[in-house]
Amino acid sequence: MAPQDRLNQVSSHLTFPQGLFHNQTVIVTGAGQGIGAEAARLFANEGAKVVVADIDQVKADAVVKAINDISPNRAIAVVGDVMDATYIDTLVKKSAEFGGGKIHVIVNNAGFTWDGVIHKITDKQWDTMLSVHNTAPFRLIRAAAPYFRVKDKEPRVIINISSTSGTHGNAGQANYSLAKAGLVGLTKTIAKEWGPQFGVRANTVAFGYITTRLTAAKEDGATFVAADGTKVALGIPGRKPSSSAQGSAVTAHNDIPLRRPGSPEEAARAIVGVASPWFSYVNGETIEVTGGRNI
User: Which of 40, 230, 6 is nearest to 131 (CA)?
Assistant: First the structure.
């Protein structure tokens, strides 16, 4: 497709009365809750057919129901573990069937943390973080290649979800930080390989402090149970303020210029925005969504 032809599709004089993603099929992994669930809803609100990919059947079905109650037949759930190569093939197959033979957007959002200081991280902790944050996104992108390496003049976008732990490092998260940094290299490579001939855009969105189960107080007791039954405690130790703590919320978030964490919906808006036609000339970039933290 000629560059000017693609530009004309998203020219500033165009409007999108049926939504920014009308007639497009979007896969969002880890869409059963948090940022992924909000992204799925926002994509659907903008006209997309959304595939809710998650390991939790109950949560995935709840997100699909919430979408379809408003816009019937707009979403389906494809449940499984992204670390299972067989599931990845199933996810791509069912997504393409749902999308009438096409897939337009992939959001690699699924993941969790399994923290530990460098000298105590186990091989299983290390390998699991690379598997869920690097190998799984790669496998999904590779499996979906036949639906992205096409010249049908329709937009194709890949969004890989990273973290400021990947762009700046974070004590206690060597495994997670390495994996999230790896997504940046994967994104740039996709942009260079699939951009010139097929017009595929690939960008990384790196989140700072967003209020999810991964950033809540570890004392709250949130856990992730892997497919093999391994239970991983989630959250940050000491995040919950003590009853004797002094100071305001401003003090608690004084490293964030906006003086507050972001919400899952705000995070999802960034994903949908970067995937949208309004970002048609943004490619191979890492966009930090942090409220100004680390500037």
Answer: 230
Burial of 1 (0-12, 13-18, 19+ CB in 10 A): middle
C-alpha 160/C-alpha 86 separation (Å) is 21
Over residues 253-267, mean pLDDT: 93
User: What angle do helix axes 136-143 and 174-198 make, rounded to 10 degrees?
Assistant: 20
Residue 128 Cα distances to 6, 23, 32, 111, 209, angstroms: 39, 36, 20, 10, 23
The confidence band for 246, taking pLDDT boundaries of 50, 70 and 90, is very low
Q: Which domains does the chain possess?
A: 3-13+20-212+260-289 (3.40.50.720)
- H runs (alpha helix) in the chain: 3-9, 34-45, 57-70, 85-98, 123-130, 136-143, 145-148, 164-168, 174-198, 249-252, 264-275
Which of 212, 255, 215, 267 is CA-nearest to residue 236? 215
- Rounded to whole angstroms, the maximal C-alpha distance in the chain is 64
**Cα–Cα dist 91/28, whole Å:** 11
Does the pLDDT of residue 249 top 50, yes or no? Answer: no
Q: Mean pLDDT of all residues in the chain? A: 90
Tokens linked to 184 = 């940046």
With 70 as the cut, is the pLDDT of residue 123 above it?
Answer: yes
Given the residues 87, 176, 209, 281, select the one marked as catalytic: 176
What pLDDT does 212 receive? 85
Tokens of 223: 């856990």
Distance CA 47, CA 42 (A): 9
pLDDT of residue 13: 63
Q: Which residue has the higher pLDDT, 221 or 158?
A: 158
- pTM summary value: 0.88
Nearest in space to 28 (alpha carbons), one of 1, 3, 5, 59: 59
Known active-site residue 87: no
